[in-house]
Structure formats: structure tokens, C-alpha cells
Amino acid sequence: MTDARSPLDGRLPEMLRSGKPLRGLFNGLPSPAIVEMCAYAGFDFIILDNEHGSADLGQTEHMLRAARASGIAPIVRCFEHDLPRILDMGASGVQIPMVESAEQARRLAGMTRYPPLGRRGSAFSTRAAGYGAFGGAAHTQRSNDGIVFVAMIETPGGIDVASEIAAVDGVDAVFIGPNDLAHAMGHGSDWNAAPVQRAIERGLKAIAAAGKCPGIIALTPQDEEKYGRFGARYFANVSTSIISKALAQVASAGMEAGLRY
Ligand code: 3PY
Ligand code: MG
Predict the structure, then answer these.
(1) Distance between CA 11 and CA 210 in Å, rounded?
(2) Given a cut of 70, is residue 53 above it in pLDDT?
(3) How far is the CA of 225 from the centre of ligand 1 (A)?
């Protein structure tokens, strides 16, 4: 069997380093079909949301299969304790919420790489290793070369040390969560409040200056343009928002001509 059949899609590190803007979306719905729809729509990546979404681990593995089959790069946002199993299922990356220090980022980065780069536990019985078909040293190398770690900053304390977090070896991208940041700063969900926007600008610029890929929620082209000026290029929309908006539009005004059934 050839590497092309490996369950692991190893394109993300290069995509994040390329300097090109990437457009993806969070998806909290436990549906391989949605993953395929996002791929066919043309998104670069999908973040399977195991922080706020309802997928269990079995459903997550099926969504990873759907991503590999349809050609969209899959990242899983998950809690630290799920990280090892998510990687063994074949995710191309993990995105971990609420990173607030370089030390925490170093620990998480270490969990995503096999020795000598980190201390990920090795097994070749996993989907990531093709259940043994793609095991051995080649799997170790392919994983260390092809998996990304994305740290999420969602607090003012995290913004203050954004450049230190971004500078950690093994941190490939740093994603600012504007909603939690706004809450932590006393602005509820109003992340357009001026102090929150200033904190986002400071964070994104610090991440870019550290040479890592800055990411953020961007719901509109204007968001992408604004945050892009601060260096952001890993832009995530939200599948449920997109679907809900489309449904509400059609429910109130009917389907636009040209859409296909
Ligand atoms: C936030 O805005 O808090 C996020 O976690 C982005 O999804
Ligand atoms: Mg958040």
C-alpha cells in the first residue's frame, strides 16, 4: 500500500506555513455528511468541535474518515485529556482551548509529537497508523512532520503572553477565541467592543511577529479583511451559523433561483 492511502492527511503544516489565507469552519454537528459538504463547498480545513459540539469519539473518527475521503484537512478542537486518542484516530491537528502560558503550550506541544520531539505515546494499531499497515518508523516520521498543534488564547492573560506562547517549538498556529475573550474581559459576547478589539489586534500581531500562523473567528469578508491586516490568515467560520442563516433566509423568502436540489 502506498502513502497516498494513509489515513493521515499531512498537508496542514505546510498550509499554515505558506503565508496564504486559509478559510475553514468549526463544526459541532456529529455528521460525516456535513464534513463532506464543507469539503465539496471548497473550505480548506474543518475544526471538529469536541469542546462545544456533541460528537462522541466514534462519531469523531467517522468524521475524520469523511474528511480524508473528501479532501478537507481535519483539526479537532478538544480537551487535553482527549488529545492522545484524537491523534490516534488520525486527526491532522489538535486545537486546545484556554492556553494561558508558554509552559502549558510546551506541555501540549509535547503531547502532539513522538520522541525525540515530544512524548506522545506510540502504537501502530490505531487508525492513524492504518491499523498497522502504515506503522513503524514511517508513521512516527509522518506524524511528527504532518500534525499541527494550535493553541487557543481566550483570556486577557493569554493575550499578554501571546508572543511567548507562539514562540514555543511545536506551536504551529495560535487561534484567538473572541467570544471567550470578550466574556473574560467583562464584555459578554460583544467582541466588537473596543477594548476587546484592541486586545485581539495586540494578540494577532504578537503571534505573527513570533513567526507563527495567527487564527481567529471570521464570520464575514470584512472580518477577514480587518483581522488580516493584523496578520491573521487562519480564518474559521461556524457551520451551524451558516446553516441557520441559510435556513432562515429560505424560510422567510424562499429559495434563490439557481440553487440545486
Ligand atoms: C471563542 O470565541 O471563545 C472560541 O472558542 C471560538 O470558537
Ligand atoms: Mg472559546
Answers:
(1) 22
(2) yes
(3) 19
Judge whether 255 lies within some domain: no
Residue 36 Cβ contacting ligand 1 at under 6 Å:
no
Spatial contact of 234 and 175, defined as CB atoms under 8 Å apart: yes
Element holding 23 (H helix, E strand): strand 22-27
d(C-alpha 121, C-alpha 244), whole Å: 40
- Global confidence as pTM: 0.97
CATH code where residue 79 lies: 3.20.20.60
User: Can you tell me which atom of ligand 1 is nearest the CA of 26?
Assistant: 7
88 lines ligand 1 (CB under 6 A): no
The answer, yes or no, to whether any atom of ligand 1 lies below 6 A from the CB of 224, is no
Question: Which residues are catalytic, by number?
Answer: 52
Residue 120: DSSP 8-state? P
Read off the pLDDT of residues 179-210 as tens digits, 9 standing for 90 and up: 999 999 999 999 999 999 999 999 999 999 99
Give the integer Cα–Cα distance in Å for 236 and 23. Answer: 6
Taking the centre of ligand 2 as the mean of its atom positions, its distance from the CA of residue 219, in whole angstroms, is 15
Query: In total, how many domains does the chain have?
Result: 1
Evaluate whether residue 82 is within a structural domain: yes
- Smallest CA-to-CA distance from 226 within 245, 206, 198, 207 is with 198
**Amino acid symbol at 234:** Y
